[in-house]
Write a structure and sequence with these properties.
single chain, alpha/beta, 16 helices, 6-stranded parallel sheet
Length: 488
């Protein structure tokens, strides 16, 4: 029996491209603005390895990273002719995802299942499409394996599979939620052989040959806008250190990986300390970076750097304490100032992630947040617009309070559209703040020569000489436009 796991095409134009699998929420990237980036679809690849281990003929295709057109990907699906397809779908791409699956059903007779935060949050909406047969909800790994086993055996008692939604005659059945996987060590390493490993990258890294590893699932915090609490039912667990070391060595030996990006939702201080100690003890020579907790002490940061850590990321969201509390992110702002100062002292790069347009934001709080991002000593920062994705607590709150301005899912994209309205804040206020953030970031970039040179060198290694010249021309025009935007 053939099982295909798919990251289907979305948008790829001369100006813009879209990212899906490998990200926590689908997003568009403007080619004149960002470093080229394709994320490794870690969780899709995890599920693929479980399917392979169970004895099925497994195929996985990352059409986004391979930059396949819709027609090229349809030709591939027709060539494989799988018995079961699992497609990971996302809110802003959902209409394109559904249209693609409709075309798939016209070409092959495969059973079609969907997974991802949007499908898990709105299973009835997905199953309203007559060509979609199942929704594999939340943590997909074992639910997908069990579904494949039932289909292979000819069983139709799908109500006995936990974490599944399906159609039975005219009814939609949603089975009880499956328990989260408590022991991540029982999972095989994610699939790499069928994926374009040379295409994957990470903008924050120093080295070109970078691989993403995710050694934990969930998060101990409950930020209302984040998908982690929904996906993993407010649980938090991580793999054992010997397996983490084994996976790093495997990637080094097989692909010549020079840097590891631990794309876990958060690395808690005790885990960061143990990870650094394990890398040193096992003499693993590799650069690495990760998302960390604000309260990570200086001595732990120092140990992390000694083990190869080149930088850290952290979610700040807003510098206003009331805004942060409104999004259920209550840590005190003073902690982040201490963390940034400690990282600067140690020479660690820092990236702060900010989110504007949250429940209690105002034009004034957004400006203060952006000014902090540019002036606090961060190496770089990213700003996105608050987006209430179906399946999250933020979406439920926004819907209950009539904050949503549209149910057009294509607009639920954090870089280009804002879909909320509060009495104290309108969408135009948020768009103005995004333009201001672009201006502050462009100004910060050109005044930071070390970072600019690192960016330029990595871009050249990624694109080659001809591609590099084209990228520089394009991005220089964007930086100039951003700087001029505040003078007009």
């Amino acid at each position: 029996m053939k099982v295909l796991l798919l990251n289907s095409p979305w948008i790829n134009t001369p100006a813009q491209y879209g990212l899906k699998s490998g990200t926590r929420w689908g997003a568009l990237r403007n080619k004149d603005r960002f470093m080229p980036y394709y994320p490794y679809p870690y969780f899709l690849a995890n599920a693929a390895s479980i399917i392979k281990e169970a004895g099925f003929e497994m195929f996985i295709k990352d059409a986004v990273a391979e930059e396949l057109t819709k027609e090229q990907c349809l030709d591939y699906v027709e060539q494989v002719n799988p018995d079961l397809i699992l497609s990971e779908v996302f809110t802003p791409s959902i209409y394109v995802d559904i249209d693609f699956l409709k075309n798939v059903k016209q070409r092959v007779k495969s059973v079609i299942a969907c997974a991802g935060i949007h499908a898990s949050g709105l299973p009835e909406e997905m199953l309203a499409q007559d060509f979609i047969d199942f929704v594999v909800m939340w943590e997909m790994d074992y639910t997908l394996r069990e579904l494949a086993e039932f289909i292979k055996a000819g069983r139709t008692d799908f109500e006995n599979i936990k974490g599944l939604a399906f159609k039975k005659e005219k009814d939609i059945i949603v089975t009880p939620r499956r328990d989260v996987i408590k022991n991540l060590d029982e999972l095989p390493f994610p699939e790499t052989d069928q994926l374009p490993m040379e295409r994957y990258s990470e903008p924050f890294s120093k080295k070109r040959k970078t691989a993403k590893i995710t050694v934990s699932r969930g998060c101990p915090y409950k930020c209302s806008f984040c998908v982690e609490a929904a996906n993993y039912n407010r649980s938090y667990k991580h793999r054992s250190l010997p397996l983490v070391i084994s996976e790093i060595r495997r990637l080094q030996e097989k692909y010549g990986i020079e840097e590891i990006y631990f794309d876990d939702p958060i690395v808690m201080p005790d885990w960061g300390k143990k990870l650094a100690e394990a890398l040193i003890e096992n003499k693993v020579k590799v650069n690495w970076h990760c998302w960390i907790h604000w309260g990570t002490p200086y001595e732990t940061l120092k140990l992390m750097k000694h083990s190869g850590c080149i930088g850290v990321k952290f979610g700040i969201e807003s510098i206003d304490q009331e805004v942060r509390k409104g999004a259920n992110k209550p840590e005190p702002v003073k902690d982040i100032e201490v963390l940034i100062a400690n990282c600067r002292k140690l020479g660690l790069m820092t990236l702060g992630a900010f989110c504007i347009g949250l429940q209690k934001d105002t034009p004034e709080t957004m400006k203060r947040t952006i000014d902090f991002a540019a002036e606090s000593g961060l190496t770089t920062f990213q700003v996105s617009m608050a987006t209430p994705l179906p399946g999250t607590a933020f979406f439920d709150e926004a819907k209950k309070n009539n904050w949503l301005t549209t149910m057009d899912w294509s607009r639920y994209e954090p870089n280009t559209s804002y879909v909320l309205s509060y009495p104290q804040l309108k969408d135009n206020d948020v768009y103005k703040a995004m333009t201001y953030a672009q201006y502050r970031k462009a100004k910060m970039f050109i005044s930071h020569p070390t970072l600019a040179l690192q960016y330029i060198f990595k871009l050249w290694k990624y694109k080659g000489t001809a591609g590099f010249i084209k990228e520089v021309i394009q991005k220089t025009a964007f930086v100039r436009q951003s700087l001029l935007s505040q003078k007009n």
